[in-house]
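User: Sodium:proton antiporter, Leucobacter manosquensis:
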Amino acid sequence: MHALIVSGLAVIVVWSLFSRVLERLRIAGPLAVIVLGALSGLLFGEDLGEHLDTDVAEKVVEIVLAVLLFVDATEVRRGFLGGEGRIVARLLSIGLPGALILTSLACMLLLPGTPWAVILVLACIITPTDFAASAGMLRDTRIPSRVRHSLNVESGYNDGLVSPLFIFALAVAEGQEAQGIGPALESALWASLIAVLVGAIVGGATGVMMQVAHRKNWLTAQSLRIGIVMIPLLVYVLAIQFNGNGFVAAFVAGIAFRSGRLEHRRSDSSLDHAEMSAVDDLGFLSSLGVWFVFGAVIILAAETGVNWVLIALGVLALTVLRVVPVHAALWGSALRWRERTAIGLAGPRGTASVVFGLLAFNALREDYANLALYLTIVVVLGSVVFHGVIAPRMIVALTHDASAAPATTADKN
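Assistant: Predicted structure for Sodium:proton antiporter:
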């Protein structure tokens, strides 16, 4: 295991030396790290499975996700729904539940005999979108801003919204006594409410305080950067202590911090890149570590051989099971069908799926644990390739044509 850790550190150093070369070759950094992680796992990862099955491993990955959600949220402009309230509301209230239902049905069809709770766990793992490995898509100015902002806000909220359902399904799958759907939904609602309150209060208050301290020259540039790094960690821990959802809290805190930090400036202006550099770098470095471990984990799944059923399910999850619910959610909206298709295709899976997959791997019995891990690997690895190489070109082509094409009658509604 020590050799695997050393190789992970070395891989990140190597990536840093050739990052610009990889960009020119249009090879996503996470994809390169995954490949090198898989090679390292092949050489040194014999006991990796035992080290993954620990509480420490779970908490580390959860904190990484909290930091990434906070960073993503600070880039959301024009309020809590990014100025695209109708689109985001449709995606979260119709598209997300639709994707969960459709994915659960696909799992039931392709994995007959699997308990419903495990089916729901699998759906929660492979449904939430996350741009950790496809951040370039959100910064591609060739894609309309309303599409990018909608996707960013959706990806920030959906894993937090799914997590209470995932925790409930995981508890049932473990054989714990469930108190019923009503109490479970009530618990999930309270967890989300607590998370919103903690995130809004702490994020907004720290943003305002940093704005005042900066104006009165009480802080240094370094202390400001360090303080911002602490915010998502503080918010996550506080939310967990109050039985809230740490992921939702971290994302809400990012939006609230941005609002408080910018104060009277325009709501669509950007935070100073220099002051956000430390938390940006921490989030990116942490995600590279997750991707390296993920690459090493691929070797564990490879030992079980090729499972064509799970591969087919993974392909469906990245295409039909995402695109159809998105089209249904956005039907009749101001978006043209090409833009709706582009949003459906822009559904990368990343750190959120890895976190849920790791939790399931640790909690479920061996056969279902391996099933969850294998499906996580198929979906995330497929997403890194598809959304890192193929999908961006398709999305640019679709949205470019949409902006030039005349609106149809349906699109005007």
